[in-house]
Amino acid sequence: MKALVLESVKKLSLRDYPINETVGPYDVKIRIQACGICGSDVHYYLEGAIGDFIVKEPMILGHEAAGIIIEKGEKVSDFAIGDLVCMEPGIPNMRSREVMEGMYNIDPDVVFWATPPVHGCLRETVVHPAQFCFKLPKGMSAAEGAMMEPLAIGIEAAKKGAIKPGDTALVVGCGTIGVMCAISALAGGCSRVYISDIKQEKLELAGSVPNIIPVNTAKVNLEEFIMKETGGRGVDIIFEASGSPRVYPDFFRCARKGARVVLVGMMNGTVPIDVAFLQGRGISIETIFRYINCFDRAVALVNAGKIDIKKFISKTFKFDDAIAAYEYAAAGHPEVVKVMIDLT
């Protein structure tokens, strides 16, 4: 079938690729309608690896997608042919200890799209367990459905932040995931969310959402700004979403006593942390890795009008122009949050 294939570092091809997938009794076959480009896709394209995950042979990219069910297994009763669905891209081993303990996101046997050696979903059709598919309500587009994957990360971060109604939050980093954290924090009950970055274009887009306050740290000192805004108290929750070692450990000083800090951004290597400061302020730290049961919440929030996800789809390319789409995404345009590929 036609697919976007990463042949090697910085070499993509849009070609026929042999994929043999059988629809099992609990599976559905989906015709892909939309697929977003994630930062991890770009990283594989430019570097050929993320940590221990190394592209050693041609691999189909893409893991943020939505599409129409065109076939279903005999045991599937929750979906009908023609349903528009989004898909959670990771399939865990349902018998693993991690799954049994409610942590399927860190199951070591998880099969996750576009994570070597597993092929992604930027192709004409995929077969996927119905259990990890979510029906999109009437009026919701496939492109919005593809945005449920990054939004699920923001929702998982909001869950880990244990938001209380009226809390204030700071998101460090205004990339795609930082924006998802900010809008999820608002939907979860925060009264104000500050978001910091050095790219003014991204900050302006995030700041167009009511009660998100952008902070350009190329122009102001973040700690001084936050303390002035909060009367010297600090914010209730911090989401570190930049994944940049350069922001450590200073951003912790924006937290009030007893605050929660959620580490969302991933990086290689180690960073400095002032343990005595954290202990003296009673600051607790949580981490996230992907998400746990967040896709249905993401769909519900968008359907209810609590989150407008469409405004963060910055540019759309047709499937035939998928290589150009990746080149555009890799260029790092400061005004871009999400590049989408339309497969209709």
TrEMBL record:
<keyword id="KW-0862">Zinc</keyword>
<dbReference type="InterPro" id="IPR036291">
    <property type="entry name" value="NAD(P)-bd_dom_sf"/>
</dbReference>
<dbReference type="InterPro" id="IPR002328">
    <property type="entry name" value="ADH_Zn_CS"/>
</dbReference>
<dbReference type="InterPro" id="IPR013154">
    <property type="entry name" value="ADH-like_N"/>
</dbReference>
<dbReference type="InterPro" id="IPR020843">
    <property type="entry name" value="ER"/>
</dbReference>
<protein>
    <submittedName>
        <fullName>D-xylulose reductase (Xylitol dehydrogenase) (XDH)</fullName>
        <ecNumber>1.1.1.9</ecNumber>
    </submittedName>
</protein>
<dbReference type="GO" id="GO:0046526">
    <property type="term" value="F:D-xylulose reductase activity"/>
</dbReference>
<dbReference type="Pfam" id="PF00107">
    <property type="entry name" value="ADH_zinc_N"/>
</dbReference>
<dbReference type="InterPro" id="IPR013149">
    <property type="entry name" value="ADH-like_C"/>
</dbReference>
<dbReference type="Pfam" id="PF08240">
    <property type="entry name" value="ADH_N"/>
</dbReference>
<dbReference type="InterPro" id="IPR011032">
    <property type="entry name" value="GroES-like_sf"/>
</dbReference>
<keyword id="KW-0479">Metal-binding</keyword>
<keyword id="KW-0560">Oxidoreductase</keyword>
<comment type="similarity">
    <text>Belongs to the zinc-containing alcohol dehydrogenase family.</text>
</comment>
<feature type="domain" description="Enoyl reductase (ER)">
    <location>
        <begin position="7"/>
        <end position="341"/>
    </location>
</feature>
<dbReference type="InterPro" id="IPR045306">
    <property type="entry name" value="SDH-like"/>
</dbReference>
<dbReference type="GO" id="GO:0008270">
    <property type="term" value="F:zinc ion binding"/>
</dbReference>
